[in-house]
Amino acid sequence: WLRFVLFSLLIVSPCVRAAYLWYSAGGRILIRRNLEGQPIGFLYVRPMPFWFASPSMTTTNMGDMNNNNNGGSNTADCLTEEQVRALPEIVYQTPPKETSTTTTTTTTTKSPQKE
């Protein structure tokens, strides 16, 4: 009996943890309903990106970016302020507006005039 409980905990606990991470990251399965309120299917809402990773792996503490005190995070991929300022500036230009070639014509019908 003890073996069964331990084996089931070994299988169930990672699945429960994954379900909790998926749900806490915004993942949902909703029931779609029609106008009368009858269920017609399921709607799958995706979780945010990187939902399976722990939050400490996906968030960056901005205070620890320059000093490497937060448990060994690597800042070799980060640009320095001088490197950022040396990047070329990209000026956004709005695309030209297209003129519509289709024109709508309205036709009016005159009612017969009485003489």
Which strand order do you get reading across the main beta sheet? Answer: 1-2
Q: Secondary-structure element sequence? A: HEEHH
Mean pLDDT: 76
Q: What's the alpha carbon Rg, rounded to whole Å?
A: 30 Å
Q: Tell me the span between the first and last alpha carbons.
A: 105 Å
| Count of DSSP strands | 2
Envelope shape: flat
Helix content, binned percent: 25-40%
**Which secondary-structure class do the elements indicate?**
alpha+beta
Query: What is the beta-strand fraction?
Result: 5-15%
The biggest sheet, with number of strands, parallel, antiparallel or mixed sense and barrel status, is: 2 strands, antiparallel
**Low-confidence runs:** 61-72
Structure annotation, total helices = 3
SSE topology sketch:
Elements: H1 2-24, E1 28-33, E2 39-45, H2 55-58, H3 81-85
Antiparallel strand pairs: 1-2
Written description of the protein model:
The protein is built from three helices and two strands; from the N terminus they run αββαα. It is of the alpha+beta class and 115 residues long. A two-stranded antiparallel ribbon has the order 1-2. It has helices at residues 2-24, 55-58, 81-85, and strands at 28-33, 39-45.
Question: What distinguishing features does this structure have?
Answer:
two-stranded antiparallel sheet, 3 helices, 115 residues, alpha+beta, 2 strands, single chain
